[in-house]
Amino acid sequence: MVKIADIELPDFPLLLAPMEDVSDPPFRALCKEQGADVVYTEFISSEGLIRDAAKSTMKLDIYEKERPVGIQIFGANLDSMLEAVDIVEKSNPDIIDINFGCPVKKVVSKGAGAGILKDVCLMESLTAEIVKRTKLPVTVKTRLGWDHDSIKIVEVAERLQDVGCKAISIHGRTRAQMYKGNADWKPIAEVKNNPRMHIPVFGNGDVNTPERAVEMRDKYGLDGAMIGRATIGNPWFFKQVKHYFKTGEHLPPITLEERVEAAKRHLQMAIDWKGEKLGVFETRRHYTNYFKGIPHFKEYRMKMVTSDDSKDVFAAFDEVLENFKDYQFVS
């Protein structure tokens, strides 16, 4: 069993990573149904929260069926972060997660996200003050370091633990790498193998097959996997990994009927949550993966990703079901 403070999780839990414009309530609901043990919100700007910006406050929406759920915030100003914590607490999440890993320029340029990797002392002090501010467990998501020459993740993790961080998720790339190259899990294993570490250490980056999840668990000895891009348009990934853990075999391919049903539910939940326009727009990125592998699919994909009317998108789903009913997916 793995524990984040008093939250009990199964051995080697699978966590849905916070992803901007991806890990919203509809998608989190689908992932939870398919076996995600912990889900995280999109990352939320502390400055946006304290200004009551609509896009930021909307991201605070969480539902009972998601639990345990973490709300992730980012920022570099202590007062703003503490005020944001007070706002987040009102949504009653199970976990508050601090983003010290986002590599995007507009975040980093403000000293937030991965930008804070240049100032480990600030990283430590921010975490310490947030821990003091809330009774909720505080966790951190970060990267190996700013660049290859400044990797101090073993020391960083130890210092964050010492000020009260209850778990750490580490992406196996530096900020300089962005999402290029391969994730390096060896430094994450060094954090886990540090005899002073006693909080869960979760690995993130390139967990894109069940075999890779097994490797992270058995070869690198980590406590769990935080999974991001492999789940886009594929909420079944959690179920596939757990089936492989249990049996050593791949789950039979997800059928076309299941894919269409999930895509329809995803779109409808998105519309119900954020309205027709945004609901249609923000689910588009998932469709290529929902139907990945189908030959001569471009015509249908274009209907799905260019239409602003949900009726047209639902009709495209039905066309796919009718015209490709004999297509066999491979695992």
From TrEMBL:
<keyword id="KW-0288">FMN</keyword>
<keyword id="KW-0560">Oxidoreductase</keyword>
<keyword id="KW-0521">NADP</keyword>
<comment type="similarity">
    <text>Belongs to the dus family.</text>
</comment>
<feature type="domain" description="DUS-like FMN-binding">
    <location>
        <begin position="15"/>
        <end position="315"/>
    </location>
</feature>
<dbReference type="InterPro" id="IPR001269">
    <property type="entry name" value="DUS_fam"/>
</dbReference>
<dbReference type="GO" id="GO:0017150">
    <property type="term" value="F:tRNA dihydrouridine synthase activity"/>
</dbReference>
<dbReference type="InterPro" id="IPR035587">
    <property type="entry name" value="DUS-like_FMN-bd"/>
</dbReference>
<dbReference type="InterPro" id="IPR018517">
    <property type="entry name" value="tRNA_hU_synthase_CS"/>
</dbReference>
<dbReference type="InterPro" id="IPR024036">
    <property type="entry name" value="tRNA-dHydroUridine_Synthase_C"/>
</dbReference>
<dbReference type="GO" id="GO:0050660">
    <property type="term" value="F:flavin adenine dinucleotide binding"/>
</dbReference>
<keyword id="KW-0820">tRNA-binding</keyword>
<comment type="function">
    <text>Catalyzes the synthesis of 5,6-dihydrouridine (D), a modified base found in the D-loop of most tRNAs, via the reduction of the C5-C6 double bond in target uridines.</text>
</comment>
<feature type="binding site">
    <location>
        <begin position="228"/>
        <end position="229"/>
    </location>
    <ligand>
        <name>FMN</name>
    </ligand>
</feature>
<feature type="binding site">
    <location>
        <position position="72"/>
    </location>
    <ligand>
        <name>FMN</name>
    </ligand>
</feature>
<keyword id="KW-0285">Flavoprotein</keyword>
<protein>
    <recommendedName>
        <fullName>tRNA-dihydrouridine synthase</fullName>
        <ecNumber>1.3.1.-</ecNumber>
    </recommendedName>
</protein>
<dbReference type="Pfam" id="PF01207">
    <property type="entry name" value="Dus"/>
</dbReference>
<feature type="binding site">
    <location>
        <position position="141"/>
    </location>
    <ligand>
        <name>FMN</name>
    </ligand>
</feature>
<keyword id="KW-0819">tRNA processing</keyword>
<keyword id="KW-0694">RNA-binding</keyword>
<dbReference type="InterPro" id="IPR004652">
    <property type="entry name" value="DusB-like"/>
</dbReference>
<feature type="active site" description="Proton donor">
    <location>
        <position position="102"/>
    </location>
</feature>
<dbReference type="GO" id="GO:0000049">
    <property type="term" value="F:tRNA binding"/>
</dbReference>
<keyword id="KW-0547">Nucleotide-binding</keyword>
<dbReference type="InterPro" id="IPR013785">
    <property type="entry name" value="Aldolase_TIM"/>
</dbReference>
<feature type="binding site">
    <location>
        <position position="171"/>
    </location>
    <ligand>
        <name>FMN</name>
    </ligand>
</feature>
